[in-house]
Amino acid sequence: MHSNEYDAFGPWIREVRSSEDVPRLYAGHHIEFSNTLVVLKVPRDIARRDANPHMHLYDQLLIVTTESITALTRADERYTARELAVRDIFAIEDSVLLLDGLLTVHAVGTEPLLIPYNGSDRESITRLVAEVRRQATRVDVGSDEDAAGNAHDIELAAEQFLPEMRDQGIRSDCADVLRTEPGSVVLAGQSTIRVHPAAGSGLRFAVAHRMNPAFLSGVVAIGGTGDISLIHRRRWIVRGAGDDVSSARTVVIPARVDVVDVVPHPSYAGVSIVRIAATRGRIEIVVAEHSSVAEVVRQYCARPGAV
């Protein structure tokens, strides 16, 4: 037994352009394709050799319109559906660690929407995020035609904020954003730094960090017309002297944010947690104490008419 779904199966996220492309598990969900901006099907995280024609081979179907993002998620032989209104979205986090990709969409008054995916196909998720941002902010976030970019800002970010070798990946990600979104500008940043346990954290904790040091991720804040982006690593604090190869971008929509608080990190000296809250929803970023990134995020989210 063969099927078109099975024959085409692989690790790639595929665009759905018509009802014929919809995986059979989700065929009962009505999609008005004339009203969609992008529809993607996200494959199961299994090798091709482990698939067979009887399986439901796509874990999620993602539907973006001008008003909402809907995720249909496989649950054995059935699926669940979640819909978030774009007017309620206040932050989007996208990160990749080797082949482990994760998109998290935060909206006011509800749990985050989690979308795991194969990191080798991040380009498709980047396109989906751009559409969601465009609808949430009503601002065009750039296109491939803008590839000339801001050479001055790219150089500034690399030389001023990210001089360390450990930050090479963040520099590259920052440059990609500035090249493809020419309306954006570098606002602040900090390089990766070694951090130490806070006083009172305990002798065992302190000794462990002498043997296996902790590093706070470098980060660059990039402001756009309708949102602010933070380019960083997936985990804000990592242990070990080796390079962190993860890539992460957190997009915050200031118009949805109620308050930004900065508090000391409970475990590390000279480190602050920036809490960005929006009606029972919250994300956190971690920066060096007195970092300009924290103040820029606070000011940007407080600007009237930021979106």
From TrEMBL:
This is Uncharacterized protein. It comes from the Bacteria.
